């Protein structure tokens, strides 16, 4: 954290950073219970600021009335854009679809379930106006999470800090503001296995943090059960480091060394003491152990190979059934010219 703060304080405010359009990207999957409250919450915060904005809703293949509600909100306000994905692609890809569509000079990514308090957007905009390219929100408390989830989250961060190539800040989700520069960088990474925390950390740029209290979900259920969290952790590790492959090599090497020493031991023992009893238990233990190690190492290689397979197909990240733009002024082309 100390390192991050000192690099942040070295950033000088940019005189030309006259903020224009802000896009608020919100992926939503079966959020009919939250959407109206969410839109009202955003409206309440943004109406107190002199900041032009649009909301980019991404309907991630919801099976409830989420899309209808989005359309209704769009009819009421010219500030709303909708990206209706052709099916459920998962939060990571839904977020990317929203980023692709966002016209703003900066973009805030926020969840629809009101766990990310819209009031924080005010502090994020302030950070952006100071000249930071990324202002991310760090949770000070995880009210909605039980002790097991907290412990597993802590273990995951410890692991990724130990083996990962880039530092992923702890207790930071996708809730953040990114300047156009940062958004373009994130959008340029088109990998299918999108571990967003890793992608955000990888692109870099001067960052600042704001701290907030994470409330429990307003309504509905989290889509993250333990199985999905486990898969997300594997995604996080395999997408940001090759360490498991290296560990497999060392594990194989260590096992071979142990086998060699054991082999020498048994040969010497047989020569000097003879071998009156057939060593069936030793044999079965060693065979099973080696078989287990080999399968595990193959599994690790398979995880990476599967990812290579998925990426080589070169498919588009998503398809959209319909894209409805907001009626807010598009400030993007001249901003790009200036960059
Ligand atoms: N979400 C999505 N697609 C999915 C799962 C979730 O777009 O397949 C959205 C969801 O509607 C919400 C956000 O991603 O706006 C965060 O989801 P959730 O609250 O389930 O995650 P958590 O807050 O528990 O991390
Ligand atoms: Mg949530």
Describe the overall structure.
- The chain has 2 domains: 3-240 and 316-324, Spore Coat Polysaccharide Biosynthesis Protein SpsA, Chain A (Alpha-Beta Complex); 243-312.
- It is built from 12 helices and 8 strands.
- Helix 10 (243-273) packs antiparallel against helix 11.
- It has an 8-stranded mixed sheet, with helices on both faces.
- It has 339 residues and is an alpha/beta fold.
- Bound molecules: uridine-5'-diphosphate and magnesium ion (MG).
- Magnesium ion binds next to loops.
- Residues 27-29, 31, 60, 88, 90-91, 94, 111-113, 115, 222-224 line the site of uridine-5'-diphosphate (UDP).
Gap between N and C termini = 29 Å
Major sheet: 8 strands, mixed
Taken together, the total number of domains comes to 2
CATH architecture of the largest domain: Alpha-Beta Complex
Number of distinct beta strands: 8
Residue ranges: pLDDT <50 for 5 or more in a row? 1-17, 333-339
CATH class assignment of the largest domain: Alpha Beta
State mean pLDDT (0 to 100 scale).
82
Shape: elongated
Alpha-carbon Rg, integer:
25 Å
Q: The CATH topology of the largest domain is what?
A: Spore Coat Polysaccharide Biosynthesis Protein SpsA, Chain A
Number of DSSP helical runs: 12
| CATH homologous superfamily annotation of the largest domain | Spore Coat Polysaccharide Biosynthesis Protein SpsA, Chain A
Spatially, the strands of the biggest sheet line up as: 7-5-6-4-1-2-3-8
- Helix/strand/pairing category: alpha/beta
Strand content: 15-25%
Distinct small molecules bound, one entry per kind: uridine-5'-diphosphate, magnesium ion
